[in-house]
């Protein structure tokens, strides 16, 4: 595979794997979240994406994630917004702009609506999902390329998340009750299908910045769905800050050809910055690449 095609492959998967990092939860109870302590409206995270070609990591794209206070059908809600794009240097070859929007209930982060718009060169797709808890169903509407819209109704399961809202739910989990090697179950909606997945907790590991400073991260590997991007299995590793912010710091994953990596580049609007490692970083975090 040529280098240019490999870089584009990385860019196409960057937004997905940065969100799938958190693809786990405890679905044993319908009350999925007791309290949100990790984030608040106004938070914005930016990531750099890289593709590994032999011994070289090549810059490929950027992902941004943000949180807003909003309303959905007159109910208090969070609006989560994610964008993924390739670097402008590659626009002449392959133009990529993906956007994801999710609305959730404010108190327990249960998904209410999810929208994914994919624009990759000449390929366009639009996925929409409406969560109805009165009858435990999910209504979907999907259109790919110029084909007619497809409508479907799925049977929902307790604590099922889309690939964006789950990123914020997982940051509020109590990791202290898990041991190294534990599998934590998840119910997640991906491409009009609800998947029963898990993540394997790998304990605490230290991450080092370019300046030599070190800080603790929670480390884990989710079970991936086999498809056009991943081989399946546990070929992804995630590092989440071991403080009250629980921010994804770094993600690495093997793809069908090579591997990709996402690294936190900048942040703002953190809920718990006063007594955390992020206080003195002034919005930038230079992790070793």
Description:
This is DUF3108 domain-containing protein. Keywords: Signal. InterPro entries: DUF3108. Residues about 1-10 and about 20-30 have low confidence and may be disordered. This protein has two helices and 15 strands. It has a 15-stranded mixed sheet with strand order 8-7-6-5-4-3-2-1-15-14-13-12-11-10-9, covered by helices on one side. It is globular, with a radius of gyration of 18 Å. The chain starts with a helix and ends in a 21-residue tail after the last strand. The protein has one domain. About 40% of the residues are buried. The protein has helices at about 5-20, 165-170, and strands at about 45-55, 55-70, 75-85, 95-105, 110-120, 125-130, 135-145, 150-155, 160, 185-190, 195-210, 215-220, 235-240, 250-255, 260-270. With about 290 residues, it is mostly beta strands. Strand 6 and strand 7 form a beta hairpin.
Architecture blueprint of SSEs:
Blueprint: H1 3-20, E1 44-53, E2 56-72, E3 75-86, E4 96-105, E5 111-120, E6 123-132, E7 137-144, E8 150-155, E9 160-161, H2 166-169, E10 183-190, E11 193-208, E12 214-222, E13 236-241, E14 248-254, E15 259-268
Parallel strand pairs: 9-10
Antiparallel strand pairs: 1-2, 1-15, 2-3, 3-4, 4-5, 5-6, 6-7, 7-8, 10-11, 11-12, 12-13, 13-14, 14-15
InterPro entries: DUF3108
Protein name: DUF3108 domain-containing protein
Organism: Marinifilum breve
Strand order in space, largest sheet: 8-7-6-5-4-3-2-1-15-14-13-12-11-10-9
Into which percent range does the helicity of residues fall?
under 10%
Counted up, domains total 1
Largest sheet: 15 strands, mixed
Number of helices: 2
Q: How much beta, percentage-wise? A: over 45%
- Rounded to an integer in angstroms, the radius of gyration calculated over CA atoms is 18 Å
Query: What is the strand tally?
Result: 15
Structural class: mainly beta
Distance between the termini: 23 Å
The helix/strand order is HEEEEEEEEEHEEEEEE
* Overall geometry: globular
- Could you name the ranges where pLDDT drops below 50 across 5 or more consecutive residues? 1-10, 20-31
Mean pLDDT: 80
Signal peptide: 1-30
Protein name: DUF3108 domain-containing protein
Keywords: Signal
